[in-house]
């Protein structure tokens, strides 16, 4: 199979397994069930059966994934290798002596501080939020892990995949669309809504890529 066929097959299997697990959970409603959500369980099943594709972190385009591809869950994005982390908004890898960003998931509105303006993205760094005794504790963000990876990507002009998270009105939760490759052009510090220091990154979309009809999503 071609890389594209492998990606589409994995997504089809995900949907089939997800629906089966969802029906099973609904049939057992009221009984003791695992707290892990159905889409996380589905990812575990596909990982165990070797259905993940592009399982190694990479810079640039992912074989078989096209600009404009849509996903309902972060677990789907992970299974096709677009953004392997299902927790972090910035995914990164080690390359020689550097840590470089491979992809980011950016969202705007509904409390998110990221902002899209045509082919320019202003992205908020990671970290600064903690929980202590059930209370949210804010800290200044640090230049480590994903934040450092974005700075290194800017220095080396290494492209970063951008996945855009969208709120949809036709179902609960978030919807994800692959927007293509971006390059980090600048970064700075500023005070966030809670008063803590956060990093802001300016990313610009690489030219020559297929466009995405964003009017379709709003």
TrEMBL record:
Signal peptide span: none
Compartment(s) of residence: Chromosome, Centromere; Nucleus
Keywords: Nucleus
Domain of life: Eukaryota
InterPro entries tied to this protein: H3K9_HMTase_SUVAR3-9, PUA-like_sf, SRA-YDG_sf, SRA_YDG
Location of the YDG domain: 60-205
One family name in Pfam for this protein: SAD_SRA
Keyword ATP-binding: no
Keyword Ribosomal protein among record annotations: no
Name the UniProt record assigns to this protein: YDG domain-containing protein At5g47160-like
Species in which this protein is naturally found: Camelina sativa
Lineage: Eukaryota, Viridiplantae, Streptophyta, Embryophyta, Tracheophyta
């Amino acid at each position: 199979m071609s890389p594209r066929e492998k990606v589409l097959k994995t997504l089809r299997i995900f949907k089939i397994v997800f629906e089966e697990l969802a029906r099973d959970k609904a049939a057992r409603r009221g009984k003791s069930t695992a707290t892990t959500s159905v889409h996380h369980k589905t990812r575990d099943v596909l990982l165990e059966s070797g259905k993940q594709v592009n399982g190694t972190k990479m810079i640039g385009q992912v074989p078989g994934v096209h600009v404009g591809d849509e996903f309902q869950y972060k677990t789907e994005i992970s299974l096709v290798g677009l953004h392997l982390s299902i927790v972090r908004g910035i995914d990164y890898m080690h390359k020689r002596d550097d840590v470089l960003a491979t992809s980011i998931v950016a969202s705007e509105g509904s409390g998110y501080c990221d902002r899209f303006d045509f082919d320019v993205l202003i992205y908020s760094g990671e970290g600064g939020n903690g929980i202590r005794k059930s209370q949210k504790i804010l800290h200044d963000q640090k230049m480590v892990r994903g934040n450092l990876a974005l700075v290194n990507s800017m220095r080396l002009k290494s492209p970063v995949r951008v996945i855009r998270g969208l709120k949809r009105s036709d179902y609960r939760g978030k919807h994800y669309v692959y927007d293509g490759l971006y390059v980090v052009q600048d970064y700075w510090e500023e005070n966030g809504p809670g008063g803590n220091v956060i990093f802001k990154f300016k990313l610009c979309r690489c030219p020559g890529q297929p466009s995405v009809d964003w009017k379709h999503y709003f």
